Amino acid sequence: MPPLDASIEVSEPQLSSFKLTYASMFNPPEEVHAHFEAAVKRLKEKLGNSCGMIIDNKDVFASRTFDNRSPIDTTCLLAGLQAGGAAHAQSALRSSKNAWREWGHAHWRDRVAVVRRAADKIEERIYELAVATVLNVGKTRLEALGDVQEGVELLRSACDNMERNNGYIVPLVSETLDGHVVINRSVGKPYGVWLIISPFNFPVSLTCGPAGAALVTGNTVVTKPSPETAWVVRLLAECFRDAGTPDGVFNYVTGQNDTFGEALVRRQEWDGITFTGSHRTGMKILRQAAHSRYPKPTILEMGGKNAVIVSRHADLQRAA
Fold this sequence. Notes:
By secondary structure, the chain is an alpha/beta fold.
């Protein structure tokens, strides 16, 4: 594992004078669109390539692949992705477990530095990642830019919280007893390997949110995106790798159906999980975690679909 404080050169973001948020993205300066159009041309040259999983910062290829196609135009092949199996699930989790022994004992400031470099790298590539999100998810360009920028801010927020708390130590209310001073502190410890199963609709932000919190607090990560949007998460994983994240600390794996996800969840090497997806799958994960020898943190976001009812009295143009 390379030194955690290794110097990694990170370029300045392409827009320094404009801060992109969900509130500001509806009226951005024209240069945003110019940067986006330029990124479209760059990324189209890379479409259709075969992409490996990333385990121990190395590209890993399976015996079978599946196509990631755009929902906008299903004839558009974005990438060939790996149909991982049980052996890949085991390899990624073991890689994370081995890396955790050093990462979990590193100083929290060193971990924060790595995560900040990853956030900078993502922001540096915000337009390429946003174009990939448009093609892979079907979002509008401004929604896609918002998703990527939110991922950046979630990573930085996790870093800010660690710095604000001076790491994992949080002072609590102290008590005064006759002749004694009682000092109470909350001192946390990392769990180990954190498994992140992210959904199709916000592939960047809903990977970065749990990943940032897990990484700065000393956990290592295995992330498995939705097979529908696994290509953009591959590009996101490259940002972590290129930012100098040590081997095994952030692993990216892919599978085509529920079988691969179940292979990950059934294994005992993970110590905590964040899942966003269906109620059926979330409940299966909860039951699996309950069968472990010790309680495992299980964060589940399940099922809700935001229905919109359009009546005959509606302004159909506005509703559309």
